[in-house]
């Protein structure tokens, strides 16, 4: 084989690899965007349900019972809830795995270590996406232990009453602080995540559409993170009580 033919073969192979990598990167970004949208819809509904605490003990507990009986008698008790849990678990695995794969590819594309200069044009939410995501993952594990899997009452009270467990938890100042820090991380994550999802789906092709995507990110972040923060704050301040 002549040197010219060999060179062309190597170039073709590298080109094919580059095209495949680009396609798989786009697929990973789409998977992140779609799984992210699933979580946005879930936390929006979850936040609305949490606000039932303002209606008092019975209204909140009725809501907690209702989400366990949705779909009955077609589905068994908690059947629909388990379907939702499976969807969320699959979405979480897809989201985390896609993020890890994209992060590794970004690192491989910069094999030489260099001094990173802070990009003044980037937002705080974009610079904290990775650590914010890890913070949220740890918080989700604790949140499930606190209210769902283990039902841990840090004040030592009963755990069989959803409303009272919520009040006991957020009456504890340090637990409320942890929750609020997690909501700050959630807000930043939602802000940049919403914009990135719209960008991946092709809704930021013009200056005006990019601006609308940024506004959408702020609206989603403030509504959801702010809404989640109301219940622990008003519980700590004595408005929501047993």
Task: Explain what this protein looks like in three dimensions.
With 242 residues, the protein is mainly alpha-helical. It has one domain (31-108, 123-236). The chain has helices spanning 3-50, 57-69, 79-108, 124-127, 129-147, 162-170, 173-200, 207-236. The radius of gyration is 23 Å and the shape is globular. It starts with a helix and ends in a 6-residue tail after the last helix. The model is unreliable at 5-12 and 14-19 (pLDDT under 50).
Write the SSE topology.
Elements: H1 3-50, H2 57-69, H3 79-108, H4 124-127, H5 129-147, H6 162-170, H7 173-200, H8 207-236
Q: What is the gyration radius calculated from CA atoms?
A: 23 Å
Q: List the quaternary state of the chains.
A: single chain
- Integer average pLDDT: 87
Give the DSSP E fraction (strand runs of 2 or more residues).
Answer: under 5%
Brief rundown of the structure:
The protein has 242 residues and is mainly α. The chain has one domain (31-108, 123-236).
Properties at a glance:
0% strand, 242 residues
């Amino acid at each position: 084989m002549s040197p010219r033919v060999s060179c062309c073969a190597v170039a073709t192979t590298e080109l094919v690899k580059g095209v495949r990598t680009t396609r798989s990167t786009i697929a990973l970004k789409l998977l992140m965007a779609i799984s992210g949208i699933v979580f946005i819809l879930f936390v929006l509904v979850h936040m609305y349900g949490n606000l039932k605490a303002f209606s008092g003990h019975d209204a909140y507990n009725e809501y907690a019972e209702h989400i366990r009986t949705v779909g009955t008698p077609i589905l068994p008790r908690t059947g629909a809830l388990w379907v939702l849990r499976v969807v969320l678990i699959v979405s979480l695995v897809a989201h985390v795995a896609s993020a890890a794969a994209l992060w590794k590819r970004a690192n491989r594309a910069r094999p030489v270590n260099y001094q990173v200069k802070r990009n003044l044009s980037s937002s705080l939410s974009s610079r904290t996406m990775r650590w914010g995501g890890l913070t949220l993952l740890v918080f989700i594990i604790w949140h499930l232990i606190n209210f769902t899997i283990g039902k841990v009452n840090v004040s030592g009270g009963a755990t069989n009453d959803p409303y009272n467990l919520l009040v006991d938890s957020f009456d504890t100042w340090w637990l409320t602080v942890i929750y609020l820090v997690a909501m700050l991380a959630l807000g930043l994550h939602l802000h940049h995540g919403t914009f990135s999802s719209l960008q991946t789906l092709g809704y930021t092709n013009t200056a005006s559409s990019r601006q609308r995507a940024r506004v959408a990110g702020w609206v989603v972040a403030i509504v959801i993170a702010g809404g989640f923060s109301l219940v622990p704050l008003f519980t700590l301040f004595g408005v929501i009580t047993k």
